[in-house]
Amino acid sequence: MKPQPHWPRRGLYLITPDEPDTARLLARVAGPLAAGAALLQYRNKGADAALRREQAGALLPICRAAGVPLLINDDWRLAADLGAEGAHLGEDDGEIAHARAALGAEALLGASCYNEIARAEAAATAGASYLAFGAFFPSGTKPLARRADPGLLRASAHFGLPRVAIGGITPDNGALLVAAGADLLAVIGGVFGAPDPTAAARAYGRCFETPSP
Ligand SMILES: Cc1ncc(COP(=O)(O)OP(=O)(O)O)c(N)n1
Ligand SMILES: Cc1ncsc1CCOP(=O)(O)O
Ligand SMILES: [Mg+2]
C-alpha cells in the first residue's frame, strides 16, 4: 500500500454531537474546530440518510477552511460521495478492506477495536489508518460502550499505526491515556457538553504537553 499523505497524528480528535439542526451544528463546531482539532468526525446517530448527507456536506467546507480532515462515521460510501478525507468504521459498519479498495490508499480509515488486540491486528492487516480503543471511562454519550484498559494502548504499539482513545475523556483524565500510548483523544461530551466548548477543546492540548512515549 502507498504511504498515506501527511495528516495530524497527535492531538484532539473532535467528534460531533447528535445535533438535528444543521445551522446549529455548524455554529457549535466552529469554535472547537478552530481551537485546535487534529481531525473532525461527523457522527449523528439520530439522523436519517438525507440529514447525514446534508450535515456532512455542510461541514466539509468549514473543515477545509480550517485545514482539518473530515471523517464520516459509519458510512464510507457517503465519505466517497462527498469527497471527505475518510471514514470511521465499527464492527457493524462494513469492512475496512472494502473501504480501502474503494477509496484508495490516501483515504483515512479508522477502525474501532474496542478492547480487543485481535481486532486491531485484523484492522491493521486490512489497511486501517488508525486503531481506536475504548471506552476508557464511563461515557455519557454511549453509556453501554464496552470498557477497555489503558494497557491495551501500550500493547498495540507494535502495529505502527496511530492509536486513538475514546470514551469519557476529559482534559483531566486524557493525559494518562497519552502516557499509555494514545496519539489522539476522541471526544464528544468533554467538548460539546462543556459550558465553553471552545475553551474545553483548547484544554485538551495540556494532555499532549509531555513528549509521546
Ligand atoms: C474514533 C472513534 N472510535 C470509536 C468509535 C465508535 O465506533 P462504533 O463502535 O461503530 O460506534 P458508533 O460511533 O457508530 O456508535 C467512533 N465512532 N470513533
Ligand atoms: C462513540 C463511542 N464509542 C465508545 S465511547 C463513545 C462515545 C464517546 O463520547 P464521549 O467523549 O462523550 O464519551
Ligand atoms: Mg459505527
TrEMBL record:
Binding-site residues for Mg(2+), renumbered to this chain: 74, 93
Gene Ontology CC terms, in alphabetical order: cytoplasm
SUPFAM superfamilies found in the cross-reference section: Thiamin phosphate synthase
Cofactor(s) this protein cannot do without: Mg(2+)
Catalysis: reaction(s): 2-[(2R,5Z)-2-carboxy-4-methylthiazol-5(2H)-ylidene]ethyl phosphate + 4-amino-2-methyl-5-(diphosphooxymethyl)pyrimidine + 2 H(+) = thiamine phosphate + CO2 + diphosphate; 4-methyl-5-(2-phosphooxyethyl)-thiazole + 4-amino-2-methyl-5-(diphosphooxymethyl)pyrimidine + H(+) = thiamine phosphate + diphosphate; 2-(2-carboxy-4-methylthiazol-5-yl)ethyl phosphate + 4-amino-2-methyl-5-(diphosphooxymethyl)pyrimidine + 2 H(+) = thiamine phosphate + CO2 + diphosphate
Pfam families given in the database record: TMP-TENI (PF02581)
Cofactor annotation remark: Binds 1 Mg(2+) ion per subunit.
GO BP of this protein: thiamine biosynthetic process; thiamine diphosphate biosynthetic process
Highest taxon listed in the record's lineage: Bacteria
Biological pathway: Cofactor biosynthesis; thiamine diphosphate biosynthesis; thiamine phosphate from 4-amino-2-methyl-5-diphosphomethylpyrimidine and 4-methyl-5-(2-phosphoethyl)-thiazole: step 1/1
Residue ranges constituting the Thiamine phosphate synthase/TenI domain according to the UniProt record: 12-190
EC number: 2.5.1.3
Keyword annotations: Magnesium, Metal-binding, Thiamine biosynthesis, Transferase
Binding residues annotated for 2-[(2R,5Z)-2-carboxy-4-methylthiazol-5(2H)-ylidene]ethyl phosphate, in chain numbering: 139-141, 168
UniProt binding sites for 4-amino-2-methyl-5-(diphosphooxymethyl)pyrimidine: 41-45, 73, 112, 142
Broad class of enzyme this protein falls into: transferase
Entry annotated with the keyword Transmembrane helix: no
Gene Ontology MF terms: magnesium ion binding; thiamine-phosphate diphosphorylase activity
Family: Belongs to the thiamine-phosphate synthase family.
Entry function: Condenses 4-methyl-5-(beta-hydroxyethyl)thiazole monophosphate (THZ-P) and 2-methyl-4-amino-5-hydroxymethyl pyrimidine pyrophosphate (HMP-PP) to form thiamine monophosphate (TMP).
NCBIfam families, per the entry: thiE
Protein name: Thiamine-phosphate synthase
Lineage per the UniProt record: Bacteria, Pseudomonadati, Pseudomonadota, Gammaproteobacteria, Lysobacterales
